[in-house]
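Translate structure to sequence.
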C-alpha cells in the first residue's frame, strides 16, 4: 500500500514540476523554460541518488518507509529548486551579454 501511495505522490510531484515549467516558459520565455527543464533533470537525479547521499543507514531502522520517502522527496525538491535557480541566473546572464 505504501508503494502505491509513494508512486502516486511522485507522479503528482512530477506533474506539478511540469506545470511549473510550463508557467516559467510562458512567464520568462526560453530562459525560464530551459531552467525549469534543468531543474526537473536535477530533481530526478537527486531523487535517484538520495538514498546514498541524504539517508543515513540507521534511518532504515528508525524511520518508516513513508518517512524515508518524504526525506528523499525533500532532498530532491531542494536540489531541483537550487538547480533551477542557478540555471535561470546563468541563462539570464547569457542573454544580457
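Result:
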Amino acid at each position: 500500500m505504501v508503494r502505491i501511495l509513494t508512486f502516486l505522490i511522485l507522479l503528482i510531484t512530477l506533474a506539478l514540476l511540469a506545470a511549473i515549467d510550463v508557467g516559467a516558459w510562458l512567464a520568462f520565455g526560453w530562459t525560464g523554460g530551459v531552467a525549469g527543464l534543468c531543474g526537473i533533470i536535477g530533481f530526478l537525479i537527486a531523487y535517484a541518488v538520495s538514498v546514498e547521499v541524504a539517508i543515513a543507514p540507521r534511518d532504515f531502522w528508525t524511520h518508516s518507509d513513508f518517512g524515508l520517502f518524504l526525506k528523499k522527496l525533500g532532498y530532491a525538491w531542494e536540489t531541483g529548486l537550487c538547480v533551477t535557480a542557478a540555471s535561470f541566473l546563468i541563462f539570464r546572464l547569457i542573454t544580457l551579454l
